[in-house]
Fold each of these.
Amino acid sequence: MLQWTDDSGDALDEGLALFFPGPNSYTGEDVVELQGHGSPVLLRALLERLYQLGCRPAEPGEFTRRAVENGNIELSQAEAVAACIDAATVRAGKQAMRQLQGAFGQRIEELMHRLTGLVAHIEASLDFPEEEIPALFFEHLSEQMQDSIISPISALLSTAPLGERLFDGATVAIIGAPNVGKSSLLNALAGRDRAIVSNIPGTTRDVLEIDFEVHGIPVRLADTAGLRLSEDIIEQEGVRRAEAAAEQADAIIFVADATRPDTWQTNRDANMFLMNKADLVDSGFPASFTPVSIKQGQGLDKISDSLAEYLGDMNLADDGLLVTRERHRTILVDVVSHLQRGVGMLHSEEQLELTAMEWRTAWSLLGGILGVGDIEHILDRVFSEFCIGK
């Protein structure tokens, strides 16, 4: 146990000092960690004393950036550190942890290794221009590129909608005529009474939002005012806000009342049409509506499953690895574009150099995911998103 004092020798606090020698520390450098009693006042005094002795606050993401620059982790693992911090659901946290452990980086390294082999075939052919290249060579190389690189990258890209939604979340608006069960649906999906439910039409005047999750996807659910013509100025504003919420939402749930045919009509595009109180009628409502009974709890599981499917949830093949960051998705789209352009040129010896150039560019782009090469501008962008320190 150590005692820390101010500049006059008076005790500030006492605690532990842990030394982590490089290169086995997190950053790869010598690191000392001080553990005090946790009082904000005492910690602030201790920090001020450290600043007097020449220390300074860490920049956003500085510890993790040093770990990357010292080769302790690669860049995609560093981004996973931020993902672990930002994860709002257990599913998102597990995906972030897999990437922190290097699963995504290993997949990219594997693709780069395969691409290196195919480029080497072209380079070898260019080194011996006097040798005639058979047509089967071009066909085989094209098939190898498609099967071993382009298809796996395309499969990864197909996971991006779900991967990004796990961390960015989604907004879902509930719309429909007054008194059809929109607020009851919000309460049922949230698992608690958040919205006022009443038989009086027009109870909801503003947009009411709650956060919950569907299959591990963070969702912000918005209950809106009933859509109808009204002379009430306040209700008119509520309808205007309901329309605006629907415009900005990632998905829209339209709710109607099976006992009120006047609520069935809609000219609005929606991702899900629900017929509430379907247990009170035999049939007769449009086939596009899913029958539910919010009060009885009938069909709610189907609502969650359908909503998750629309938001990108899928039966994950292979090992369930996801593309979770826009930066990675953008790079992979560019990689596929360069690879396919190279394949398009792969039909004659005269264009082999162009094919090699396209594929080398794709290799460099993949390296940007891992932090390979001159990527100072990429580091600046990535670590600007970190919280202070880390």
Note: The chain has three domains: 2-56, 90-159+320-369, 167-310.
Amino acid sequence: MTREHLHFVTGRLAEHSLRGVVSRLADEIGFDFTIDVLPITVAALMTPAWIARHLAPVAKASRVIVPGYCAGDLGPIEQAAGVPVERGPRDLRQLDELFGRNRRRADGYGDYDIEILAEINHAPRLPRAEIIAQAAELRTAGADRIDVGCDPGEAWSGVADCVRALVAEGHRVSIDSLNPVEIAAATAAGASLVLSVNNSNRHAAPDWGVEVVAIPDDIPTLGGLDETIDELASAGVPLRIDPILEPIGCGFAASLVRYHTVRLKYPDAEMLMGIGNLTELTDADSAGINVLLLGFCQELGIRSVLTTQVINWARTSVRECDLARRLVHYATGERIPPKHLEPRLVTLRDPKLAEFGAAVLDDLAAQIRDRDLRLFAEGGQIHLVGAGMHLADRDPFLLFERLLAPGFGGAADTHVPPTNVDASHAFYLGFEMAKASIALALGKQYQQDEALDWGYLTVSEESHRLRKAKAAAEERQP
């Protein structure tokens, strides 16, 4: 079989690092390659039109790989090369991913069979507009059904109008109440699921004409649950069973046992788990907890979960559950651990870190001829690299002082201070060093001019420095 030949395009500064990474991948994966070093220092400043004018034709190439920062239509390059062209990653240390390394997803990834019910807490206390707005946000995040949470006490006189308004917006609605009067009004207005039913209200369930969630009268012993199930089944009322999840310290382990016990006793019954009792009542970020609980539900055949996102650490629980249900569905179906499948759920720390090493950064400093400063975060330090200069320190304040004051870091520190660090440039360096410091503290990958990767919480940022530098380079390039 003919080996694929890849033609990599880069600038002068990245040549050494790119050659090392590509050589390793070529040996591990099995392909031939050439590297075209174009007459530009910084590869990020290349444009498709400029590359097309300077590209060295390689007749044996099957693909051309250009830097990830090369934005715009790649058509001019394809026309010049005569072969397909694609962008590589913005960080060449991530080239492994271009070849599917560390990826285990298959075409079926993304399927799920767990329904998410998202509760709007204390709905009677909220203005109608706020309820409608919350419901829209919850559906966008992945909720399949909006649960209207009522307060104990007298029946809410506005429940029917609230449900009717939500149904008019296209939402599937459930009503969270034990009050038969409240429930009757809600179901008549379009609510299609009732949370919850036990000995106190099960007599009225046949009149509602909708599915209900059966819960025990006595939670620790599951007392009354069988009687409620039998009565509902005899009356032809469709139901789901919720043995009730309890918080850590209040019977959490025992409640998991109850779910397993009920599943064994009712192997074909639909079940529901209210996971907010854990995410809202545990001093921990909710994403990991949601993944674990969704994994438990997936394996046990619990096909609906009720969640809330009230407390700040759980304010994105619906989105987390939406990602988690896809992850656990695939992992369970393929019988593999849920690892290297859903990077969007890894938010605090990155799955892996790639470093250049001090020797490569020293070599980079020797090659640089322009006035730009490059920042790196590795080996527990922030590295500031410029023409003939490589400074490193854990403290960004000390690093900045060393940049402006040769000898501050010791007699060996004899670099020439840059002359282009005006107020604007100092602000830029401070912003980037702050990101680098966060990356070091949390174990995240830092890449200059790129947002830190916070998984599904990432907010992309525009590189104003690169945008200005690219515009200036385009004016200078022949």
Note: The chain is about 40% helix and 15% strand.
Amino acid sequence: MSLTRRILSLAIPAFAALIAQPLMMLADTWIVGRLGTVPLAGLGIGAVVLTTMTGIMIFLAYGSTATVSRQVGAGNRKRASELGVQAIWLAFVLGLILVLLTFLFASWIATALGAEGGVHEQAVEYLRWSVPGMPGMLVMLAATGTFRGMADARTPLVLLVSAASLNFVLNLFFVYVVGMGIGGAGLGTAVAETMMGGAAVYLIARQSRRVGARLHPVPADMWMTLRVGIPLMLRTLALRISVLITTYVATAQGAAALAAHHVVMQVWNFLANVLDAIAIAGQTIIGTALGAANREEARESTRLMTRWALGVGFVLGIVVFLARAPVAGFFASDLVVRDYAVWLFVIVAAGLPLAGYVFLLDGVLIGAGDGPYLAKAGVVALLIYGPLALSVLLLPRGQIGLVGLWLAFVFGYMGARALTLWWRARGDDWMVEGA
């Protein structure tokens, strides 16, 4: 199979799987958006908290992809399955901890992000109804990484698309038929994520039995999975802090601006996952190539996928620019919110090629197991972006402040990430060979 065909065979299913989770949040955005501006603004707070939790724990997927693919490349399929199983056990434990902490501190978290009055109330309600699905979501992350490490991108696709479809139906039912309001959107998502996680556990267990892998929890292996993932967790923590700072500054611009920010951020997340599909293929290809001690394939794959990422980002930018007004109108009924969102979509359209480059190199270095560098690079980008974003608070509130914030996010933050990743990828230190 040619390198291009191999990239496509992994990237296309990964693309469909990656957009399934953002589709859940977009479904919540569309459904809650019909309830009014205050619920939509509350969802903006609640959603960023949940995506922050999931984002910090993304190492469960990225780390297992890298470790499993290296074992597969080295010919150790049984060990690859065992590491995947232990990642799932770790994910379940971490998910339970997050449920407990969120129930205890939901109100404090919403307040810390600047939510007040009705927005605060809606945010807390959404958080408490949706967070019970977190163990299922984290289990799915670990299972997804295991499947991808074994070059199986189709199974996560089926699971995630099924969950996204179920989520939409359940949210409509709980919000409008049962009359639960924003809490119904949270409950529907929690049920869909729990069922998805359960299905993933069944499939991984069945696959592991075939190769004689251990299924019971092994603390030493769980700790190894966590230790490998800690640098990726720190990298993602820096990224999520940047997003939280962005949300904080957006909240200071008023309810309408926050609602518009939420709409555009969900579209950004959706498009980021579209671009990340190539990076996901890169994780598997780079991990397998380095596991088999094939540096030349790793380097050539990186060059080809970089060109793909830039091209796809450019095409998506054109689509967003042309469709900015209809997309804004689809998600928001308030005319002020729509007007704010249209301006932000212009910035998003211009920044998507840069985003494609960033996500691709990020995926390549994750596949290479270069977590320590990614953690340092994440901190550097945060230190550059944090003061830049907070300086937006000096601008007039509303449209001007919101536009300034998104210019800082798309070109300041993503630009800093691009420079730090380019600096690493240009050399060979990240290409460590072997299992």
Note: Residues 3-425 form one domain.
Amino acid sequence: MMMSNPKRLHPIAAVANFLKQLKELIVPFVIFVVFGSRGGNGEIIQLVITAGILIAVFIFGILSWLRYTYRLEEGELRIEYGVLIRKKRYIPLERIQSLDLSEGLLQRPFGLVKMKVETAGSSESGDAEAVLTAITRQDADLIQQAFSSAKNKSSESMGEIASGIQPRKVIYKISRGQLLLLASTSGGVGVVISAVFAFVFQFEEIIPYKKVFAGLEGFIANGVVFVSILVFIGFLIAWIIALVGSMLKYADFTLRKTEKELIITRGLLEKRQMTIPLHRIQAIQISENLVRQPFGLATVYIESAGGSLEDNESARVMVLPIVKRSRIAGLLKPHLPEYELQPGFFKAPKRALGRYVWRGVLGIMPLVLAPILFFRPWGYFSLLLLVFSLAWSYLKYKDAGWDISSLQLSLRYRGIIRTTVFMRKNRIQSLTMSESYFQKRRSLATIEAIAMSGTGGTGGRVPDLDRKEVYAIYKWYSHTGVNRNMPVNNKKRS
């Protein structure tokens, strides 16, 4: 039987263990070095202790590698590990939800991969069920084939599985132009700036920020143009960092399909492979941000039942990073025929527009009034926020919609991004119909549907739809049956 004998990870796993332990100790280690003893024998003692910790961590990494073995036996992935206490973990292949592969800077030079094993139990606990830090590509393929065989309840033997790999049809492969467009229109700039601020203010106990800002106050007051240029340069640098980071992350993005799975590979410095069993798909989501929507571009995600607290990306997987919205159905429909990806949406009634506008005005009003009261006359520019709020409220009203196609519920709504979500009836965990006092007066209601995804849920909430239409959706989900033409025959689809 293949891989029935215990195997060790590649020796580079010992280095990975050392770096992982060092990462966990970095905060107390830095505190010890910065605030340790000063002068005389104290520095020598500090140096000896530091060297001792590093040696101990490195030895522990080697021992962890020596004591870690894995094998496939009797339909299980069997792992034994532990330095002081020997532990055994047997994972039935049919319980595995997904196997995610990645090639980091440590693995790639040796032709190795890192494999994360996800099960339903790992989603609840927040950790992967098992992580094989450094294994050969051949062993990874054998484990994947054994996993696929267990899922498909194949009668093939392990030896027959190893003899061939399932054919993989390429659905989508990102081009250089698409990669550049994806990176340049992503929201990574805000993430970079937030990360810089979070890092800098970790040292507020050491760096006297108040004194620094006080010293710069006069300079800023007399150098508005110069400060504006610095701010522009800062944002430009953040945009370039985000651009490069996104291009490295999504380089060579490819979506393939086997008989039972979708397989995604991506990355330049760190190659990653994610597997999505088709039967684990909970919903499909189309996202259109403000930059891409005017050009008819969108991003498609698949919500899966896999994932964990530490790796929620395994639950919400990007399958089409950037694509013309008109092409989405043509790309995915042949491979996911049960989903209707071009429904005609029923829109919110005209009487709901006032509620959308009123909510937007109430939300923005404090930001409009405060500058007018305390920073006149420049504060009057805050009235532009009111104009922006009115336009935004109209967009939210215009984009709100729903549709029922056979056994599928489709919802469309807008926050900052316009989102369209498609959920099969048997995947919907909960569906809620709600009415406030003011909604009742206008015969309106709110519909919210949730499908399970990773450790939480996915779905959508669309407020202020026609009450009869919301009731029709509720009846459809409640298995009582509904003649769609009765409550909605006077509506037009968009």
Note: The first strand starts at residue 7 and ends at 8.
